Amino acid sequence: MKNNDSISIAVIKRLPRYYRYLTDLAAHGIDKVSSTELSRRMGLTASQIRQDLNCFGDFGRKGYGYNVESLRAEIGAIFGIGNNYSAIMIGAGNLGHALANHFDFKKRGVHLAGIFDIRREIVGESISGLTIKHMDQVEAFCKENKPDIAILTVPKTEIRPTVARLTACGVNAFWNFAGLDLHLEFPNAQVENVHMGDSLMSLCYKIANKKDI
Amino acid sequence: MKNNDSISIAVIKRLPRYYRYLTDLAAHGIDKVSSTELSRRMGLTASQIRQDLNCFGDFGRKGYGYNVESLRAEIGAIFGIGNNYSAIMIGAGNLGHALANHFDFKKRGVHLAGIFDIRREIVGESISGLTIKHMDQVEAFCKENKPDIAILTVPKTEIRPTVARLTACGVNAFWNFAGLDLHLEFPNAQVENVHMGDSLMSLCYKIANKKDI
Description:
3-stranded antiparallel sheet
């Protein structure tokens, strides 16, 4: 594999999608795949796929195709899967429950280590094997467990003090579901903002304009 | 405004973000904004903003800036806000509850008209003022109300039969939370797939590589 720095950002952004398809293939016991077959499954052209995976030269041999497990491991390594990142979730509301119960953290190499909320009436309840803790315990938990990521499923109005508090605990990466651009206010943090509203607007665009984007 | 066709897809993809910021400005009673001010708020360069909004010539006058409400309305029109799209939600689990209770559909011009589930034990319960109906009623509901969009918050295993059933009801646009690429299996439908896993992988990339993408 070439150095990560030689892979363009556009390709990096597409790699999680390859990772998904390769994970599916591996789960079905398929050990090699051609660019033609990947293109059929992913709805991309074979030449686009060959171009995207060009930097993984060793795994794509003419007439053989790609070794599924090796390519998957290689992409996973670029994304730090295997680094065993641990995460805490702040906010045990409906979205917190949905993620904790149904989202496959393990598939992305992330371990959900704790769930916190400010509502005393739900503290002690269990979600997906984890007991909801009160936010008062977050400092002690972070000191002991040093989580890499905080998943923010708190209301928008709670975001700023929550992030300031977590930053003081040494947490510096945020998966933010509050619908605001957190990276602008905390430029030193690593942030992924999930903007569901933008996604619904994209769908409305497709309906209104009868074309894909 | 130029014809929508003259706006590049890259710009179209960024417009929901502009729409968010313009909505915030309007909510704060701000009626005009310069590209410099927008750039400060959005974390883009002023020249990128001027280039992006180039096609909205009438609203960006030198020395005046952009008329917030006009530009917001113009972008909204491109995305069909004002077309009063109606949506039904299939799946009243945690994610369905989270969206119905906390997601601002109105802001995106979408009206949530019905919520359906196959679990008889939750039929009749109320979420956000809507009574959960049994899926048995979906055909009659669609015939009468002709919803534009189905929001899919059902488990992945239920997706294919659910979409086939809704397609037969005349629903042709899907906001899909099941984590698979629905557009490949239903090429005639308008689909927006939400891939939360890809988003978490992007965050892990930023942590592992200590750089933004």
